[in-house]
Amino acid sequence: MTVPEAVFYHPRTVPLRRRIPTRLAVGAARLLARQSPHQIRKVLTWLRRGAQPATFAQTKAARDAVVTVSLACAGREGCLPRSLATILLCRLRGQWPTWCVGVRKLAPFGAHAWVEADGIPVGEDYPPDYFRTLFTVP
After folding, report:
1. Beta partners for 114?
2. 2 part of a folded domain
3. What is the count of structural domains for the chain?
4. Residue 69 burial by Cβ neighbours in a 10 Å radius (0-12, 13-18, 19+)
5. Could you give phi then psi for residue 98, rounded to 5 degrees?
6. Does 11 score more than 70 pLDDT?
7. 13 assigned to some structural domain
8. What is the domain extent for residue 58?
9. Could you give the CA distance from residue 128 to residue 131 in angstroms, rounded to a whole number?
10. pTM for this entry
11. Does residue 67 fall inside a structural domain?
12. Is residue 120 classed as helix, strand or coil in its secondary structure?
């Protein structure tokens, strides 16, 4: 059974000098998303070394760029590649927000991946306590 979904498209443009790294981050995120959670966590733990903490504004800008260049990351079911692409794009800029994986607190069960900066989920339509965090890569 398929469920129709409408994805809001904001006609923003990402300058070419930022579009290329963003597309590279999205491609790498889609490959990384195929790995096991343990392997993803191990790779991200290795990548975060030496990075500065990202601010909310920096993380939001990276997430907006990812959502603009990739329709797959913009969809509701694209939370894993979207969060991974955001974190990888931030890392290309020398920054590191917190990558989180969790589940809904209320039924029905639903897993979710997101990024946080300054302790606040970035770009999420849910309240901060909607998900129970299972693990993070701070």
Report:
1. 100
2. no
3. 1
4. buried
5. -90, 130
6. no
7. no
8. 18-137
9. 7
10. 0.90
11. yes
12. strand
